[in-house]
Amino acid sequence: MDEIAVNGAAMRRIKKLYNRLTIIYAAVYLSYAFISVFSGIMIPSVNVLGVLFDTFILKCGLVACGFLSCYKHKNIFAFYAFILQLISAIFDFMEGSFLDIFFGGMVTGLSFNKLLLILSAVCCALTVYANKKYEYLETQVGFPHFNERRINQEFDKKQREIKDEFQQNYERIIKTSSDEMADIDMNARDTFPVHKRTPEYDYEHAHDEPEKMDTI
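The structure corresponding to this sequence follows.
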């Protein structure tokens, strides 16, 4: 049961990691998409078509793939999310926006899309780790709850189902045997009829003389 407790704690950590990754994908990348649209409208030097493509195709696709990587526990979606952000960083559609000016010129020296690429790589690595751990926990006793009481309840339920099935089979066998015995009894009565002596029979044969044996 100690192993069940350890696996239960690991499962809780994995679920917490999935939740945090989902929040990062939604909060960071959707916020960036909103700011991108705002920048495309307000700043004349920004490539509006590029921003729209980056926002509604790349970033929305990235968020969807990130969510699916956590929800379906598939690494391929995490890789798709990273590739979409890599395309965005290569073309750098937001170059010249106030985000790039602030983070590039004053803080990191990198454009905001390149910073998001680093974040995507980290999220992808964490998702692959979480999925690998989740696949291991799937093969363990007690998955997915790893609750000792619940395991005992499920075991008792299966035992009752087995017992009920055995009882049904036993009753079916008894019923079949009873029907066969009844058929045999009825057939025996038809083959060897029993004649009962009645008062009328005794009166009719009362004066019958016994047959005399032929004498030699």
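The CA atoms of residues 161 and 167 lie 10 Å apart.
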